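User: I'm curious whether this sequence folds into something compact or stays loose and floppy. Could you predict its structure so I can see for myself?
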Amino acid sequence: MSWEDILKQPALTPQEEQEIQSMMRFRNMDRESAEKSVRRKYGKLGQVRQPVGRLTKEDILKRKPKSGPREAARKRMKAKGLRSFNKPQRLNDDSDKSHHVMASEGGKYKYIKFGQKGVKTNQTAGQRRAFKSRHAKNIKRGKMSAAYWADKVKWNPSKTKEKKNKKWRKGS
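Assistant: Here's the prediction. I'll summarize afterward.
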């Protein structure tokens, strides 16, 4: 069976497509033989695809790609190398920031870079307290602020090196 013959076959359902993908992955089958096997299983082998008549408005809307602020944010996020919303990652570029995140809150999306690259942070409890008091106002703004993410990622109490040392250390 050639690709031309397969293209004449009826369209596959998402369940059938998923089964083909799993056959390709776990049984090391090529696409053509996996599709033949699935079509044979569901009795679609040899059936000719019905010609599509005039398209209705509903058909056109079903085929329309997703759009909107979430999809635009997802595109930008993937371009920046982020995997998910509200999941901070280390930043490997020439900027002076150490981390980045695509923040999402209440249907709004914002790309944020935060944290000074190459600086020792969170060395003592006193240093952490000084950071929190200095940036308390911005931390309260929530997920859409860089201070919130710096506080969560870089100044987390569990990451403090000297938990008992209350002295402030230069560089905080």
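Summary: Residues 3-50 form one domain. The chain has seven helices and three strands.
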